[in-house]
Amino acid sequence: MRIIIILIFSFISAFPQVNIQETQVTDGVVHKKILNMNDTLVINILKVDIQKPDLTILTVKANELLNTKETTSQMVTRYKLSGYDVIAAINADFFEADGEVISNMISKGEIVKAVKFSDSPFNPFTNSQIASDDDDNLYIEQFVFSGNLIIPNGNVEEIRRVNSKPDSNSITLYNHFQGKTTPPLSKEWYVVDFVLFPLQSVGDTLIFITTAKTTLRNFEIPKEGLILSANNKYAYYLDREIKIGDTVKIVFNYSPRLKNIKSLTGGWPLLIKDGMNMIRWNPSIEGVIENFSEQRHPRSGIGFSADKSTLFLITVDGRQQMSRGMTLLEFADLMINEGIYNGLNLDGGGSTTMVIKDKVVNSPSDATGERLVGNCLMVIRK
């Protein structure tokens, strides 16, 4: 009997219970599904030939508003109803309870949120982000936002944030992603808001005319244009220096320097850098904590090949009988095995969702099903 058991075990080991299915979704897009019964894993991988001229990526904010949430499939449906040919989507950045994403975000070339430091309780600097430019070149970096306001007297002042809760004694910009009105601020602050209407752009400099200014709170944000909001010492200063009818200039930059950013969204942490497993090299990279990194959870991730020709979207189901999830180290190894040269972890857990052709192809772990999230990243046909 002992010999028979050994033979059966050897037979099972020689033929591992791993089922791999590859399906061509459309020209240049392949869906790979891995059912690994040995390791109890369900993995979905989307491979996109991003160099095909008719394919591109698009970052999408829930409801096109900073402080709201939607499911990934709801965002897909909304964009399809607007005329977009959405091929696939994956949930993206970590987010606050109200839906505000943690890191910088740009959608269709427009800033959704810009901050110098990620709003992360774990990382004191900034989380890594993935970006694409107008030519669909892909980048993963710790992009740091900086903004400058050039006022009529020629002085240059720092713009601290776009669409995010301001610091005291600072300058913040708001656009339509913030909502209908400027956010509530401390009643003790002196605040002056300026309405800016766009005139033209010269290189990376945007030129606006000041059409109104007010000290009223919760002031209406124009659909076309910006609100320049100054508080406390900057409010007194700019109230004196900027008059209605004046032109002001605004310059946005990101470091490392990158021009013509079309799409940008955050993740956490960086997993693969130039083919190296960064978790193996530094388990606490970007402030990663042990129970997040070393416990097995559902995972979402994104990355690209060494020549940047192939984009990868990956989900690993977890917290379920059919799939136990992965540690970050295992997730990074999976990325390398699939051909990812630079890769980023996205929000996982109950947020993990992949949609292909209107269908959720993974199994979200929440008992209630697909989770409401802050944003997503789509693959679309131009």
Output the keywords.
13% helix; disordered N terminus; 382 residues; eight-stranded mixed β-sheet; eight-stranded antiparallel β-sheet; Jelly Rolls
Structural write-up:
It is a single chain. With 382 residues, the chain is mostly beta strands. The chain folds into two domains: 249 residues, no CATH class; 111 residues, Jelly Rolls, CATH 2.60.120. 13% of the residues lie in helices and 40% in strands. The chain is built from six helices and 26 strands. The strands form five sheets. An eight-stranded antiparallel β-sheet has the order 1-2-3-22-21-23-19-20. A hairpin with a 2-residue loop joins β24 and β25. It is elongated and about 75 Å long. 44% of the residues are buried. The N terminus is likely disordered.
List the helices and strands and how they pair.
Layout: H1 2-14, E1 18-26, E2 29-36, E3 41-49, E4 55-61, H2 72-81, E5 85-91, E6 105-107, E7 110-113, E8 129-133, E9 138-141, E10 144-150, E11 156-159, E12 161-162, E13 171-174, E14 191-202, E15 205-214, E16 226-231, H3 233-241, E17 247-255, E18 261-266, E19 270-273, E20 276-277, H4 278-281, H5 290-293, E21 299-304, E22 310-316, H6 328-338, E23 342-346, E24 354-356, E25 359-360, E26 375-381
Short structural description:
With 382 residues, the protein is mainly β.
Which structural category fits the helices and strands?
mainly beta
First-last Cα distance: 64 Å
Q: Measured on Cα atoms, how large is the radius of gyration?
A: 23 Å
Biggest β-sheet description: 8 strands, antiparallel
Strand order of the largest sheet: 1-2-3-22-21-23-19-20
Oligomer: single chain
Shape: elongated
Strand content: 35-45%
List how many beta strands DSSP finds: 26
Give the helix proportion (percent range): 10-25%
> Low-confidence stretches at least 5 residues in length (pLDDT < 50)?
1-14
Total helical segments: 6
